[in-house]
Amino acid sequence: xxxxxxxxxxxxxxxxxxxxxxxxxxxxxxxxxxxxxxxxxxxxxxxxxxxxxxxxxxxxxxxxxxxxxxxxxxxxxxxxxxxxxxxxxxxxxxxxxxxxxxxxxxxxxxxxxxxxxxxxxxxxxxxxxxxxxxxxxxxxxxxxxxxxxxxxxxxxxx
Length: 158
Hints:
Elements: H1 3-28, H2 34-62, H3 70-100, H4 104-134, H5 139-149
């Protein structure tokens, strides 16, 4: 699959996910059961999220992305680490409840929350390990590249 074909596919998928989210929101307004509404609206939010993901893929394929500065990396790392800990606490909390609750209706909702927390935790760890580190270009890297790739190694050329 070539780049343009992939761009077209992810663009179309973004639009489909937006439409699906809208239809689910409408569906949730047609009945009054609060738990079923919450589950349907939760799926709608996931579709909105998927649309955002598809849009980001399209943008990634269409244009060069800005590098993350060292300062931004530190902000990201600090925020990610905080949320990794929070997700771990939420995983433990929902797991404990799941171990104690027998009502299948409650188990359905708590299971959905638990599975999301596990996915979020893993994604945050992956971001911390892969994306943030790889997208960083420190000032030292710039000067190292200038020095290494320059035929004059920092001296005026002529």
